[in-house]
Amino acid sequence: MVWDILTHLSDDIELLFLPRSFRLPTIAYFISRYTFLAYFILLVAEDVKGQCTAPKAMALTGVGYIAVVTTLLQFLVRAKAIFSDNRFAQWFFNCLWLAAVGGTLLVVTGASSGICNSDYSYYIPVISILVHDSCVFAAISYRIYRMALTSPRSMRSRSDLPSTVQVRFKMTILTLWGRTCPH
Asked: Is 156 exposed, middle or buried (CB count within 10 Å of its CB: 0-12, 13-18, 19+)?
């Protein structure tokens, strides 16, 4: 994680200075990335000292909660971009995200009572995150599969796609990344 952040720090800085870079996907990306870094640093510091008190547990789980919620938000944005034409799917993914955020909140509740490394406070959050991520993965994979079925078999590269599909693909990418693509 630390190696990845240090290796791509220049890319992150470049991403900040792009036009229209302060949109929800980019903000969620940066918050997720750097709160996970803070979480791992706090986790290592807590393991080195070996003592876990309620304030340390709250700080650790609070930072971890923000990291997980913003990562789930990135998945939500991707799913909503892929299913931009299906209001039911968008509603479903919003509800699923809220359920996962609520389920993950149990980790913070467990930490507020001074429980640092107990298994019971992690079951429901892990299951809610797993269900959310699996549903998003399955739905996006299904959409890609359906797109492959509707396209002629002779299409092998993006340049062979009809202009309507190219425009829709470009709009989906723009929605995901929030910036202009080169022509």
From this structure: exposed
Give the predicted TM-score (pTM) of the model.
0.71
Q: What is the pLDDT of residues 134-180, one digit of tens each?
A: 999 999 988 888 887 776 654 545 555 566 666 777 677 666 655 55
What pLDDT was estimated at residue 161? 55
Domain carrying residue 67: 2-177
**Angstrom distances, CA of residue 121 to CA of 41, 110, 116:** 22, 6, 9
DSSP state of 160: G
Cα 130 from Cα 177, distance rounded (Å): 24
Output the CA torsion sign for 69, 70, 74, 79. Answer: positive
Burial class (CB in 10 A: 0-12, 13-18, 19+), 141: exposed
Q: How many domains does the chain have?
A: 1
158, part of any domain: yes
The angle that helices 9-16 and 24-49 make with each other, rounded to 10 degrees, is 140
Q: pLDDT tens for residues 108-134?
A: 766 666 555 555 566 778 888 899 999
Q: Tokens 């997980």 appear where?
A: 68
How far apart are alpha carbons 54 and 168 in whole angstroms? 50
Which is nearest to 28 in space by CA: 78, 92, 93?
78
